[in-house]
Amino acid sequence: MKETQTIQNKKESTTTAVRISGSEAVVRCLLEEGVKVLYGYPGGAIMPVYDELYKYQDKIHHVLARHEQCAAHAAQGYARISGEVGVAIATSGPGATNLITGIADAQIDSTPLVCITGQVASHLLGSDAFQETDIVGISTPVTKWNCQITKASDIPEVLAKAFYIAKSGRPGPVLIDITKDAQFEEFDFAYKKCKGVRSYNPIPKTEKSSLEAAAKLINAAKKPLVVWGQGVILSEAEEAFKAVIEKAGIPSAWTILGASAIPTSHPLNIGMVGMHGNYAPNVLTNECDLLIAIGMRFDDRVTGNLATYAKQAKVIHFEIDPAEINKNVKADVAVLGDAKASLEAILPLINKNTHAEWHQKFKDLYAVEYEKVIKNDLHPTKEGLTMGEVLNQINIQSKGEAAIVSDVGQHQMIACRYAEFNQTKSNITSGGLGTMGFGLPAAIGAKMARPEREVVSISGDGGYQMTIQELGTIFQQKAAVKVVVLNNDFLGMVRQWQQLFFDKRYASTEMVNPNFVAIAEGYYIRARKVTKREELAEAVAEMMASKEAYFLEVCVEKEDNVFPMIPTGASVSDIRLE
Amino acid sequence: MSTDKQLFTVSVYTENNIGLLNRISAIFQRRHINIESLNTSPSEIESVSRFTIVVNMTEDNMKKIIGQIEKQVEVIKAFYHTEEEIIYQESCIFKMKSGLLFDEREIQNIIKESNARIVTVNRDFFVIEKSGRKEEIELLYRELSAFGIMQFTRSGRIAVSKEEMKISTMLEAFQA
Fold first, then answer.
1. For FRET with B160, which of A81, A82, A145, A191 sits at 20 to 30 Å CA-CA?
2. Do B19 and A136 make contact, defined as CB atoms within 8 angstroms?
3. How far apart are CA A149 and CA A218, in angstroms?
4. Confidence grade of residue A3 (pLDDT, cut at 50, 70, 90)
């Protein structure tokens, strides 16, 4: 770090100086930032910090994950359900590289994380020392910011900056790498929270003219459609958002990460957009006259073929990150800034409306989707169990109050399509990166952040086995996570693609699975397996009633497909129902 | 037409921190964009660094890249300019055999006419330095190559914009 650092950051002093080691400073910085739980795995280069965590264990709870990747995912789950910064910690070399998948996931899904890694002593840097890896170099493309510390005296300022950057503006992961000698070194510690970094503008200024132009388009629109994303949740704009869509009477659809911002049952909530989203919002994206995107980034899984995406519509883009404007879809009006502030500011500028005729179109198409897809998913008459009916039972038992933490694949699409939410921050899933193995560890983090909430982890048999060892963390932490595996003995989503696009050549997608119940029981977790419809409702009820962790395996139809589906490269309006 | 590729000179004002070069070059590398030249130096503002990057791309993509560069925490501001909007220079050095200075009188004329200068002469070799636009340097290279060049190297472009870039105003606004 440079001397100039001091003029680059705005700070607020909260402590007076005391002489302590760098490693103790790390823990005291975490305490200053209000961190109560962190997830990690010890090792040589981070041992001094662990020694301090031992001394401070009455103030800060360290959760021993069974793999550093899972420490990162647990920190993500913690952040996603609470809105606070998740913290993960690991040693140098493989400990640090194992964090990378979680960091990359947090980067693409805008999750605030601070990851701390130990590093070999500074005199060994670049010498290919034991467990040395260039983690700052490796993590650069997948972090919002990163920094290596080689002097203890830099620790408070850099960690303060790390928390500030992770949480402010569009959130993201930050990695701080600390050499072992800096952890041992003593210095005069004083903590000042970071209030600003001169080269970094977290929330761009909202131009009044952009709000006026947006309101004008909204007021003139005959067939407006809102597509909202996680930005609504991250800026805690749920109420302001609801007020705007209710006043203007606009049908509103969500991206996978936007789910749960308003209740599933809200009359203006018309479902999910994208590859496996609902029929009506996808088809009518190409019929609306105004598309209002709020806190979303037009991911390719949302837009399908951009050349045929909403070409007939004017586009308003509410967005905090200027780099997202015109990146994929050209905005006629870009409203830069924080979603909550912008939505509150635009509310008085928009006219009351109902758009009844336009709403009817969504209802009509929903009826088509219900008949062709939803009915058979939720209330099947065929013999095999469907993933949808499991979700239906979870909805009935949870009354929409559970946080659903899904993994990646078919079950994820089913969970996102059918889970009912009454509370915000309740749909926790790996959206952008599509990280199999995310679900189970993220559920642990979510449950520990919000122990009063029901947290249901839903995985497939593939992704579950990528991080299955975290059952050990559940057991050790007594985290009352409800773990559901929807087992079809296949990597179902890949198999579905093989069926549809590769002439049913099922290359390496069939899974020969172990006795999942025995594995859960091996970790002393109550477990049950369901193979018949008659047992399902009662088994789900038993799971939800459990005060402790519970594992439920449901053997579902092996070769079911998820529909609707927009094939890659197709237009949103060419969505297939079968 | 913004869909035609053209040369842009990107000026990036940044904090002077280790690792930022990596972050910025990764933005280009990830999108498979070749950097024609890259130069880093101090700027007119104390403790603020300046990158000068030359790329060949469409204006639409250039705008997206500027957005990605500005998104980096330690980037204060990034600008892009067309060839007409900047004053730019490159520099090059030729090492040649000393004997040529006496045997080939034409070399003296080439040096004079091209506004190059001789930096040093010793028994074995002499060194010519030339600053100017890319075409001038290429012309000099072609002229000298007939005589045999021992070593040649050219620097990246450095440029100033004709319009003001107002970095100081931005930094003062932060301090306020």
1. A145
2. yes
3. 50
4. very low
